[in-house]
Structure formats: structure tokens, C-alpha cells
Amino acid sequence: MNASVKQEAAAPGPGGPHGMRPGGPGGRRGMPDLTTGPIGRTLVMFALPVLGTNVLQSMNGTANAVWVSHALGPAALTATTNANTIFFLMLGAVFGITMAANLMIGQAIGAGDRSLAKRVIGTAIVFFLGVSMLVGLLGYTLTPAILTAMQTPPDAKIDAIIYLRVIFMAIPFMYFFSFIQMAQRGTGDSRTPFYFSLFAVAMEVTLNPLLILGIGPFPQMGIAGSATATLVSQTITLGLIIAWLWRKDSILILKRQDWPLLKPDLTIMRSLVTKGLPMGMQMLVVSGAALIMTRFVNGYGSQTAAAYGAAIQMWNYVQMPAMALGMAVSSMAAQNVGAGRMDRVDRVALIGSGYAAALSAGPILIIYVIEPIVMRLFLPAGSPSIPIAIHINSIVLWAFIPMGVSFVLSGIVRATGSVTPPLVAMLIALWVIRIPFAMLLEPHLGANAIWWSFPVGAGALLLMSTSWYRWGPWRKARLLDTTPRGEVPDLGQSLPGGVEETEAAEAAAEASREALIGSAPSAPNRPGSAAPAE
């Protein structure tokens, strides 16, 4: 470890220890500055709430399915499954735009450009309001046609229409809540989205049986009750989080004097779309490949299909730590890109990759040890599907280690604005390597060709991700035209991208950052230069 790294890990950053400065990048006292402080601890503390949010969402989906299936029967569960397929496609499409907003806000915050961050927020608010209203209206109107195109079973179609139409009514609130969560992470705050997600999930899980069955004063709504629980919980939570941000004077809130910023900035809007769509397309690429693999598996009968379904339930949880780290390193890297700290971005990538490998390997080893017990959570004791599922996991599970590292490296690359290469790598790994591998070798290996295609595709993805990270020109990409807050143009002391700076340059950059932070208020009536270190 060189002297500059030791100094960064041990000494207080601007405004206080562990890179916490008064007001923080988001304009709230105690908000972490992701451009200073020990990388490992900061990354873990940022990723844990993201992981918690992902786990909550998965548990919420499981709870909803249990209530619908037990209270209303298989046809109702089929209806929600078909409707949720469309719903997740809609969320996947907008995910890329929310992620682009996250990274753009992060770069502006990292550069210390509060005005630019506000402009991004104003344009993003108008964009998401328009898109969510349009999707909700079109979806509500076209629901019957969409379900017909999906060949929804006749006995489930009526329920599916009822359920999906209520979900489309909830889309504007869900889209905007998703945007606010991502924007908060861009400012460096991942805890607040977790707390409000916890509240939303708790409310939805509580309302589900009350509205489905009509318990107490609540109306008996059947399958519409499950969707209404989502609508009510998302709407109330969105209102509460906006009120909370207003009370805290968050940078995400546009007060009366900021209302002119609601006029869309076409340059920012263009970046939201051109950078967000490839990230959204990546989710569609993954979802499409999953459908193809499921089709292959279905050809081997219900026992193999049930085993595959049980294995997928475990895979979802195995992937969660690496996926949370991928989102965390994107937010962390975006702020450092904005601050001109490319040396620190490289260290985030190295530490994040190590964590992804370790946190993927841990759950895999646990599953291997207690697999027969875990399988009974998803399959009846003595089911012939259990040994098939154990065999599937013996081949597939370890593939999530290289895949987890790929998530992190792709997250780092995307943070600069280089969003197309990760999409191309995923497209090649899944559609050019995994799917053809399974198709071509299935006549020789049977179902094993399907299982082996997972590690083969994962290895190819890691190779491409590592190669692009190592040799690609992604370090030169930017989402926004920002001037790093540590840059001192007349002295030529800006930080070089991707190169370890000398100890003198590190000290000069830190001094210029402190000077800039001290010269501008980080929140109204709270000058950064006057506040004591925390």
C-alpha cells in the first residue's frame, strides 16, 4: 500500500472521518462522500441496504404468490404469473433509465456540481412522470390484447385482466418510487430507500390477505385485492418518502425557486435515453434467454421442470449479493468519476470483484452442504425431482462466482457512461454461446448440455468483461460534461484517469477539494467551511 492510500484510509476526508462531510453530497448532514474514506468498508455499508431491498422484494413476491394460490386457487396463481411477466418486463425497461439517472446524479455530485445535479433531477422528474403516465394508460387499455398475445389460459384470463389493470394503475407510482430510490443511491444514500422499501413491503404483505379475503372492515376483492395492495402500499410509501426528503431539504427536492429546472434539458434527456436504453435492454436480453432455457427444460418433462424451478429459487438468492455489489460499485464509481478519481475507481473494481467472488462462494458452499434440506423447502419430501435438482446445482451453482465478478466489472464500466459494451458482452454470452451450446450438444449430452451451458456462458462473460475493463477505452467515456471538483485548471493539478497519482498530487487534489467544499454551502444556512468535522 503506497503512502497516498494509507493516508486516504487513515486520515479524515474533507469535513470528517470516513469521508463524511457536513451536509454531504446530497445536502444532508452525515451523508457519505463516496469519493473518500476506506473503500472496502464504504462499499459494504452501501451495498448491504441494496441487498436488503432486493431480498425484501423477492420475499414480497413469494408472500403474494402464497396468498393468491392458497386463497384463490391455481387459476388465480396462473393469472398473476402471466400478469407479473408483463409487469416485470415493464420494470425492466425502465430500470435502465433509472440507473442512468442514478449515474448522472452521482457524477454531478462527485464533481461537486450541485447545479448540474439539480438539472438532472428536474429533467428526470418530468421524464418519469410522462413515461409512467403513458405506460399506465396504454397498458390499462391494451391489457386484454396483451394477455391474448401471451396465450393466457382461458380459465385464468379474466382474473389476469382484472389483476393487470390494477397493476397498470399502480405503474406511475411504482416508476417514480423506483426513480427516487435510484436517485438517492446516486447521492450516496442507500439506507433510506431500504427503510421505505421495508415499510412498503410490510404494508403490502399485511394488506394482501385483508383485501383478498375481505377480513374485518376491508372489502373482499379477490384477485384484485392482491394488486390493490400493491397500488395502495406504493402510493402511500411514495408520498411518505417525498415528504421525508422535503423535510430533510434533500437535493432531490425541487423547491419553488427550482421549478424552472422542470423544463426538460434536451442534452440530459438524450443521455437518459441513449445511456438508459442499453442498460434496460440488458435485462430484456437476460429475460429472453431465461425463457428459451425454460423451453429447453420443459422438453424433459414435469419432474425435470420442477427440479429446474426449485434450483432457480436458490439461484435467485445466490445472485443477490453480487447484484447488490454491482449496483453499489456503479454508484460509488460514478461519484469518483465525477471527482476525477479514476485511481480510486480502479481500487473499487478490485475490492468489489473480491467481495463478489467471496459473497457468491459463501452461499454456494452452504447450499452444497445442506442441499437436501433446502430442497424440501421447494419440493415435497421424496419427490423424484430432488435428485435432479441436486444434480443441476452440482454443475450450475459455481458458475455464479464468475458471473458475480462480471456484474461488478460491468457496473464499474457503466458508471463512466460506457453502457453498450456490457450489453454486447451479455448478448454474446447468452445468445451466441450459452443457448447455441445447449442446442448443439443436447443430442449428445441430453439435459446435461443445458446445465453445462451455464458455466460456459458465465466463463465467456467474465472473459469479455475483464478484457474490456483491462483494455477498453471506457475510462474516457462520460455521461455528463463535468469538471472534477478536485481539478485546478490554472495549476495543472487535475487527477490523471486510470493512473496512480504521486503523493504530492494527491495532497494538492485533497486541498483543492477541501477548498471547494468549504467555499460552497452543502445545505441552506449550513456553510461547509463553518461546520465542525464529524
From TrEMBL:
Oxidoreductase is among the record's keywords: no
Domain of life: Bacteria
Primary residence: membrane
PANTHER family linked: MULTIDRUG RESISTANCE PROTEIN YPNP-RELATED
Membrane topology summary: Multi-pass membrane protein
Signal sequence range: none
Biased composition (Gly residues): 16-29
Regions crossing the membrane: 86-109, 121-142, 162-182, 194-215, 221-246, 279-297, 317-337, 349-370, 390-412, 419-437, 449-469
UniProt-listed CDD domains: MATE_yoeA_like (cd13138)
Keywords, in A-Z order: Cell membrane, Membrane, Transmembrane, Transmembrane helix, Transport
InterPro entries: MATE_fam (IPR002528), Membrane_Transporter-Flippase (IPR052031)
Region (Disordered): 1-34, 485-534
Pfam family, one: MatE
The keyword Transport appears for this protein: yes
Intracellular or extracellular location(s): Cell membrane
Name of this protein: MATE family efflux transporter
